[in-house]
Amino acid sequence: MEPIVEHSGGVIGASWLMIAFPLASAAILLLGGRRTNAWGHLLGVFAPVASFVVAVMCFLQPSGRYDVGLYDFIPGVAKVGLLIDPLSITFALLITGVGSLIHIYSIGYMAHDPERRRFFAYLNLFVAAMLLLVLADNYLVLFLGWEGVGLASYLLIGFWQFKPTAATAAKKAFVVNRVGDFGFLVGLFTIFATFGTFAFGPVFDNAAKASNGTLTAIGIMLLIGACGKSAQLPLQSWLLDAMEGPTPVSALIHAATMVTAGVYLVVRSGAAFFPEGATASLIVTIVGVATLLAGAIIGTAKDDIKKALAGSTMSQIGYMMLAAGLGPAGYAFAIAHLLTHGFFKADLFLGAGSVMHAMKDEVNMRRYGALRALMPVTFITFFIGYLAIIGFPLLSGYFTKDGIIETAMDSNAILGWLAVIGAGITGFYMSRVVFMTFFGSKRWADDVHPHESPSVMTWPLIILSIGSIFLGGYLILSNRLMVYLGPAVGLPEALPQFHPFSPTGLATLALVALGAAIAWVRYGSAEVPQVAPRGSFLTTFARRDLYGDALNEALLMRPGQWLTRLAVWFDNKGVDGVVNGLAAGIGGSSGRLRRIQTGFVRSYALSIFVGAAVLVGAWYVVGNL
Amino acid sequence: MTTHYLVLSALLFAIGGVGVLVRRNAIVVFMCVELMLNACNLAFVTFARQHGNLDGQVIAFFVMIVAAAEVVVGLAIIVTIFRTRRSASVDDANLLKY
Predict the structure, then answer these.
(1) Which residue in A589, A598, A600, A601 has the most chain B C-beta atoms within 10 A of its own C-beta, making it the best mutation to test that interface?
(2) Which of A157, A169, A574, A582 could be disulfide-bonded to A241 (CB atoms 3.0-4.6 Å)?
(3) DSSP assignment of A590-618, as one string?
(4) A609 in contact with chain B, both atoms CB, cutoff 8 A
(5) A-chain residues near B17 (CB < 8 A)
(6) Is the pLDDT of residue B86 over 80?
(7) Mean pLDDT of B13-31
(8) Three-class SS of residue A85?
(9) What would the pLDDT profile of A235-286 be if each residue is shown by its tens digit?
């Protein structure tokens, strides 16, 4: 890894503009109110495009690790600064590039929504926060961006807040993310207590001096934060509900960028807190494998097209986590898969949005069917995204997912085989989505007239699908991404060689083909019932998200409610009882005591005389002792 | 040598105190209070003589001034009560109570 050098001026010094553009746009759109309705979406699109231009200019500068100081936040403790290095630039390009396409797409998708301006303001706010997250040069500012994307995610999931389901989903996402944030915060505190600073440079340099236990504790705490943001087990439950938001949100935030923040955090902190073979890294890989299987299984049973894709997102981020836990050999594959996933998952989500747009916002795939002739552009781009995600040879997913599986296999055969099985399930559920949507017989209602989406929506799809075809090969062949990221995250001892037909790769392809074949038999050639059949216990298990919500309810929500009820009871009966009892006692006794005030002057005089006599007598007695 | 004065002072004070407690007429109660004040004055003057300085005599003057002021206010109140209630009994004026 290269040391981080201070840098100011030039293009790198102006990198803060990347964050400033969308932030300013969000401020103008939110503060300007209805006056900006007419041109709000244009400004909203301009901001991420401008950021993208800045990101490209930074990318074209000589590669290195530059720290751009901006402002002394807490003197001597924390500075606000940006770290411009290959890793952060890679993320910035993904966020602004894919983000811009999704902004353009949203012009068409949200065209009939009266609140389109507010939608763009929130999207811009999200882009600004996400860029702050990945460009921060210390954990404190990273956390600021981290919370910012959480806020934007909350606002956008609940964008149609008049729908109770959307409002609840937004709240759920926020609460579950808070659980993760709590872990992250404890990690931050521990980092500061151990190293006395939040800055990446000093923390990474001094990590070797800290004790193993401290490093593992910090690693696990950061992982909890990453699990919350990236919807990894056991904090996965919010992602499926998050599909209540508008589809571009699902594509941008809950597939392409925000949910990958956890992977970024693990890779960024990797050298210090997740070294190869450490306990924390092992936990990262286990979480990754468990989530990649859980997400894939959930994806197999969902009839809601967006929820099937959400399960798939969980699963793919599970792959990235798995790779991120494997040390420098895995980082490049994690980031490569993250980038290609950003393209093909955004492509799939936007394709799903295009289908929904054509089908009057119907999301149930059992009401689709035979759409390929009516929506040719959407079908072709969606199909390319589908081929990319299942790892069809020579498309993006093939290179990146295969790299992860091979690396996992080298590290631990169990992890590797579980990842292969996950790829097989991916083949099944993604084929199921494609067959139910575009093939078979038409099953939609009579008043629905599917039509191709306007070109402002199809062009982003076309660009994303081109990325889905070529990006993976470009990044992986001759280890381009690994060498590029080397200065930022470190290189493995030996660069991996890409073998087109390794035994593992062939096994993966065979399983994927098997999954696709089963999907064809069940959903392609056979008639799909319009009402979901009851299904076996396993189907129910998958439909109910592996009982994740039931588990949360039984383990956390119900005991939590009991605890609050107990606290309320104790407050009413215990605390209030003591206070009220004391007040009643004083009130009652003073009511009796005031009867002494008879109004007869002579009785007062008598008490004064008796009192004086007692005092004098007592003084006399004491004086004579 | 001053013992007799002090005994007289104590007797006067006791007579005044008993009067305050047992008499009902406000004017008489008032006179008994004055008697107690003057019993005190006698004691002050006696001690002043005994110790050979003027402190006790000065205080006796103060007491007289305060007593005079008190008589002015007190008698006015008693007369006003008598005018409105046709009674000067302290037991009849007992409305200021719980």
Answers:
(1) A601
(2) A169
(3) HHHHGGG--S-HHHHHHHHHHHHHHHHHH
(4) yes
(5) 609
(6) yes
(7) 92
(8) coil
(9) 888 888 888 888 888 888 888 888 889 999 998 888 788 887 788 888 889 9
And the tokens for A315? 């699963």
Report how far residue A410's alpha carbon sits from residue A401's, in angstroms, rounded to the nearest whole number. 14
> Around Cβ B95, how many Cβ atoms within 10 Å?
6
Q: What is the pLDDT of residues A221-234, one digit of tens each?
A: 999 999 999 888 88
Q: Which residue has the tokens 């807190």?
A: A273
Mean pLDDT of chain B: 91
Place of tokens 């941008």: A252
For residues B56 and B58, give the distance between their C-alpha atoms in angstroms, rounded to a whole number: 5
Q: Which residue out of B13, B18, B21 would a mutagenesis test of the A interface target, given it has the greatest number of A Cβ atoms within 10 Å?
A: B21
Is B52 in the A-facing interface, judged by CB distances under 8 Å?
no
Is A551's pLDDT higher than 90? no
Mean pLDDT, rounded, for B56-63: 94
Task: Return d(Cα B74, Cα B78) in angstroms, integer.
Answer: 6
| B98:A594 CB<8 A | yes
Select from B17, B20, B97 the Cβ nearest to the Cβ of A599: B97
**Cβ A347 vs Cβ A384: under 8 Å:** yes
DSSP A386-419: HHHHHT-TTSHHHHHHHHHHHHHHHH-HHHHHHH
CA distance A171 to A180: 14
Tokens 């290189």 -> residue: A491
| Residue range A147-166: mean pLDDT, rounded | 90
- Tens of pLDDT along A597-615? 888 888 889 999 999 999 9
User: Highest-confidence range of A139-148, A469-478, A483-492, by mean pLDDT?
Assistant: A139-148
- pLDDT score for A543: 79
- Token reading at A385: 């995204």
Beta bridge partners, A71, equal A80
CB atoms within 10 A of CB A197: 19
CA distance B62 to chain A (A): 23
Cβ under 8 Å to B: A residues 565-604? 594-595, 597-602
pLDDT of A372 reads 82
Give the number of other CB atoms < 10 A from CB of residue A502: 15
Residues in chain B within 8 Å Cβ distance of A594 = 98
List pLDDT tens digits, range A495-514: 777 777 788 888 888 888 89
Contacts of B91 in chain A (CB under 8 A): 600-602
**Cβ-contact A198, A78 below 8 angstroms:** yes
CA distance B44 to B63: 10
